[in-house]
Automatic annotation (TrEMBL):
InterPro entries: MliC (IPR018660), MliC_sf (IPR036328), Pilotin (IPR039366). Pfam families: MliC, YscW. Residues 1-24 form the signal peptide. Residues 141-200 form the C-type lysozyme inhibitor domain. The keyword Signal applies. It comes from Simiduia aestuariiviva. Keywords: Lipoprotein, Membrane, Palmitate, Signal. The keyword Signal applies. This is Membrane-bound inhibitor of C-type lysozyme.
């Protein structure tokens, strides 16, 4: 009798554990889609399409780049991101962006906003808008008693600090304006800014008048 009770208890425990064991989640290994331009749009020669798969983070931080695809820009534009490892349970944090640039890095077309990726659809359509030419402007900031100059030219920015110069590119940001390169990260909103250089602690900055005492020195 005791043996039967023990056997039944073990069987019940096994059935309970089997029912509670999480099932393996299907992992996505690729994402495909197409990029659309306005009907009247034409592409310049020697341009490239760049598609970025990102994972969103905090509002004032740059999204983490999971994959990047570069290919010649030609109509019609289709793309395929492969060798991915995406968990459908985390799809709320995945997004796609795209832009078209010259070989020199000048932006011509870009996504108006990032396109969320949903588990129901692994084929995405990204619509690009033309990047309007802009007159370069120069802004000045004070970062821990040190002068910083930021020259903005379209989607590119040149950051000058002490004897160092960094070329940054504007990236998507849920709040404020965000520029980034491999060596520097600069986020600004209103009169406040945050500067992060590789290997150095984060620095908080404040905007200075356009006529800056560092203008001539820079």
């Amino acid at each position: 009798m005791n043996f039967l009770r023990i056997a039944c208890a073990l069987l019940a425990a096994w059935l309970w554990l089997s029912g509670c064991t999480p099932q393996a989640t299907e992992v996505w290994h690729q994402v495909s889609g197409q990029v659309q331009l306005p009907d009247e749009a034409t592409l310049q020669a020697d341009t490239q399409l760049v598609v970025l798969l990102e994972e969103r983070s905090e509002a004032h931080k740059a999204p983490a780049r999971l994959a990047e695809l570069r290919q010649q820009a030609q109509l019609p534009m289709h793309f395929l991101l492969q060798n991915l490892h995406l968990n459908p349970t985390a799809f709320a944090s995945y997004q796609l962006r795209a832009h078209i640039e010259t070989r020199g890095g000048r932006l011509l077309w870009r996504s108006a906003q990032a396109q969320p990726l949903t588990p129901e659809n692994a084929s995405v359509t990204l619509t690009l808008n033309a990047v309007a030419p802009q007159t370069p402007i120069t802004l000045f900031f004070k970062c821990d008693d040190e002068g910083l100059r930021l020259r903005i030219d379209g989607e590119q920015a040149t950051l000058s600090l002490a004897e160092h110069t960094y070329l940054l590119t504007r990236i998507a940001s849920a709040s404020g304006t965000h520029y980034q390169s491999e060596a520097a990260d600069f986020w600004t909103k209103g009169d406040e800014a945050v500067l992060t250089l590789v290997g150095q602690p984060q620095r908080h900055c404040s905007a200075e008048p356009l006529v800056s005492p560092w203008a001539e020195a820079a």
